Amino acid sequence: MITDDAAPPRPSLPPEGIFVIHVRSDSDPARRHLVGRVEHVKSGDSEQFASLEALLAFVDRHMRSAAEDREG
Asked: What pTM does this model have?
């Protein structure tokens, strides 16, 4: 039985942490060389990246923003 004060279940994949990453075929992960495009699903923000560092910086910006929004 569900009551009015029951909290809805939390999604297993919260949207602020979902990213779509397209890695081009000319990437070389063994040499830490990644080229492609990344999109943050919740915001729709996207950008091209030409290095692992650039990809991680994009993810970090969006994760920090989500944490700041929660702390608010």
From this structure: 0.73
Identify the domain containing residue 56 by its residue range: 19-71
Structural domain count of the chain:
1
pLDDT tens for 15-70 read: 788 999 999 999 999 998 899 999 999 999 999 999 999 999 999 999 988 767 76
Q: Would residue 26 count as lying in a domain?
A: yes
12: Cβ contacts below 8 Å, ≥ 6 apart: none
Residue 23 lies in a domain: yes
In 3-state terms the chain splits into helix, strand, coil percentages (rounded to 5) of: 35, 20, 40
